[in-house]
Design brief:
Putative transposase domain protein, plasmid, 4 helices, alpha+beta
Length: 109
């Protein structure tokens, strides 16, 4: 009845005993399932690596990936698009320096 040709990837989530597995796929139409799945990995690993908060943050990035036949190219393009949006944090050990500064101020030690 309806012939809907989807031209971009959508985010596919599947719950496993190990966690939520994420893949990109192209919809075959309403109620017909998803085709051309490209596995990305488990949500917890991607969340830690790219400092993401919510799984829905990946949906707009999935739409930007150009549809291709080679799964490796699709996967690398997705992670290239994801990398600039992730937040990089630098952790610095300020506790020791603050402690030493306070000790020198109060002339202790």
């Amino acid at each position: 009845m309806y012939n809907i040709n989807m031209s971009n990837y959508i985010l596919y989530k599947r719950k496993n005993p190990k966690g939520i597995y994420i893949a990109l796929g192209i919809s075959k139409g309403y109620g017909k399932g998803i085709g051309n799945l490209v596995g990305l990995g488990y949500w917890e690993e991607i969340k830690e690596k790219y400092s993401l908060q919510n799984i829905d943050d990946l949906k707009p990035i999935a739409r930007l990936v150009p549809v291709g036949e080679d799964k490796i190219e699709v996967k690398t393009k997705f992670f290239q698009l994801l990398n600039p949006t992730s937040v990089e944090t630098n952790v610095k050990n300020m506790g020791i320096k603050l402690g030493q500064k306070k000790l020198t101020i109060y002339q202790i030690g």
